[in-house]
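Researcher: Final request for today, and then I'll write up notes for the group meeting. The sequence and the SMILES for fe (ii) ion follow.
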Amino acid sequence: MPISIKLGIAGRLFTAALACRTLAATVPTGRLFIQSTSPEVPLYVYTPIPESGLEPRNIHLSFGDNETSVVVTWSTRNDTQSQVQLMSVQPPNATEKLYNGSSTIFVDSGTKKATQYVHRVTLPDLGWGGLFKYRCGSQATGWSDWFEFRTPKRGFSPRLAMFGDMGMVNAQSLPRLMQDASAGMYDAILHVGDFAYDMQEQDGATGDQFMQMIQPIAARLPYMTCVGNHEFMYNFSHYKNRFTMPKGFGGDGESMFYSFDLGPAHIIGISTEFYFFVEYGVDQLKSQYDWLQADLERASKNRAARPWIIIMGHRPMYCSNDDGDDCTFGALFMREGFLARWYPLEPLLQKYGVDLALWAHEHTYERMWPVTRLEVRNGSWAEPYSEPRGTVHVVTGSAGCRERHDTFGSPMYYSAFRSTDYGYTRMQIFNSTHLSLEQVSDDQQGRIIDRITIVQHNHGPFP
Ligand SMILES: [Fe+2]
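Model: Predicted protein-fe (ii) ion complex:
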């Protein structure tokens, strides 16, 4: 799609960052428009955090309880109404529809006790294949800019971008992700934990700035998340309060564990952090485990409709980095449970035949051979991702943050491809049998450095 860009000085800086990796972390200080060809609706509007306290900021979308429902979440400093004006662009409909929602008060636990109101408005059952524009705020206190989003077409093949560990500083992948998204390459984003570095810093201003930085993408595409260790402060309250993950299949209602259906896939988000921050209670380990088992049971009965089961969590079960703990003791906890004993996750992946596991935390990219219980389970050595009898694990934590790269140790027998380049992963779920992954390198100007297709005709338990 042709795109015209009109921008100020800060915007030019931002665009320069597309070409110059060293500027990739530059956050514009002025308004930035990237316009689509559709009438007067910018695909992207970056606006610095409004000063008034009344104007919406940190605007983002997530899926509601089904693929054609969307939740709009934003925040204000002051207590305002929660309204969304929605207009259908395709098919055209000049009538604006007004939706009402509600807000919750969120007080940061730092010394300033910085307060904000987080607004949530659900736009239910918008139908397949629509193009909409919306703005949020309220009639009384003013509106945001207009943003545009689409609902998927019936029978679509979902296209996603996924990554973890992207912070305010050194967000290397963000400019290219914006460029991709403005070209309409994705149906949703998966951010696999570790946001902002860290959201609670500067009494929460770092979280506000990060959410504003991703707004140009997240206000247009469902920005689906799971929690990371960098959100641990104040019992993960910044994460829980700022995001709105679906509740359609139960979950904890605080976005820590949940699931949703997307095309031929059932996608699950979990908190790996429950296994490590046990000072916040061990009962949540049990709650999540019990829910996950029930969710997988339900998903396996629905496999004819949603054959792919995909799980995402922050800390990997398999990796070969040389940090001395996360790929050994941390991964052990993830596979075998807390203290290698309680609530082990890998037996669930095996029992229910989870096809794909997405992790981050290590600031690198690593794709494993299909593996179950430490055993490589290739379908065949000629076509290793054809009919695999184990979960395909991928670690994608290299989108860029102030901690920069991690490094690898010697490859493990289950390591299939490794890269320390900054970058992110694209996934397309073509149909019930074919799913592809590709790794984009920001160090190599967007070159695809790894690509695989998983072929699976027999989704189900692994022997
Ligand atoms: Fe992490």
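Model: The chain has three domains: 1-35, 51-150, 159-455. Confidence is low (pLDDT under 50) at residues 1-26, 35-42.
Researcher: Thanks, that's everything.
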